[in-house]
Design a protein that fits this description.
heterodimer; A: about 120 residues; seven-stranded mixed beta sheet; four-stranded antiparallel beta sheet; about 45% strand; B: about 110 residues; mainly beta; six-stranded mixed beta sheet; globular
């Protein structure tokens, strides 16, 4: 079974530029997550999709970040314009569903995209 | 919001030693998962453990939800166990995970 795929693996941009990340979840997984992991910290959820609908985007800085999952499979996360503090690893994860009794299912993570903003 | 604290923050072990990592959380949770982030940054799910005890090879985990903590045991540690261990909790009423502060483990040969 193929895992979660992400690209690019690394990206270096100047501040105020835009950047986009791509994620392909495990086949058949309905739920997709984007996390931001700043160096030395645990991942922080940015946005969560169930199929092509947004479940939670309360921690997404909507003035500069956007994400979509148009066909309920692949997803893209965009930052425009980037700031220095956006330097981080952006992780995509997927799970089979939202789980039963309100519990999330096991989450499987991709390798991440390391973003450096200069 | 919920606070998730892990201890110790850093741990250095000789290969073959055993260790216990702790995760404390401040509110009631529906779910708890343990992850290992290897030195290349890949996060691997180790346990899905909202309560009780589970074992997988040299690793085992116990969650006591009523007392708001979970423990991860690593026995006969190997250099490949090095990395950062995170616990992540799903607060009651939420549908997502909140990650802890992490424990960085270094196993030396």
């Amino acid at each position: 079974e193929a895992g979660v795929a992400q690209s690019p693996r690394y990206k270096i941009i100047e501040k105020r530029q835009s950047v986009a990340f791509w994620c392909n979840p495990i086949s058949g997984h309905a739920t997709l997550y984007w996390y931001q992991q700043i160096l030395g910290q645990g991942p922080k959820l940015l946005i969560q999709f169930q199929n092509n609908g947004v479940v939670d985007d309360s921690q997404l800085p909507k003035d500069r970040f956007s994400a979509e999952r148009l066909k309920g499979v692949d997803s893209t996360l965009k930052i425009q314009p980037a700031k220095l503090e956006d330097s981080a690893v952006y992780l995509c994860a997927s799970s089979l569903s939202l789980g039963t009794s309100g519990r999330t299912d096991t989450q499987y993570f991709g390798p991440g995209t390391r973003l450096t903003v200069l | 919001g919920i606070q998730v604290e892990q201890s110790p923050p850093d741990l250095i072990l000789q290969e073959g030693a055993n260790s216990t990592l702790r995760c404390n959380f401040s509110d009631s949770v529906n779910n708890l998962q343990w992850f290992h982030q290897n030195p290349w940054g890949q996060l691997i799910n180790l346990f899905y453990i909202p309560s009780g005890t589970k074992q997988n090879g040299r690793l085992s985990a116990t969650t006591v939800a009523t007392e708001r903590y979970s423990l991860l045991y690593i026995s006969s540690s190997q250099t490949t166990d090095s990395g950062v261990y995170f616990c992540a909790v799903e607060p009651v009423g939420a549908n997502n995970l909140f990650f802890g502060t992490g424990t960085r483990l270094t196993v030396i040969p």
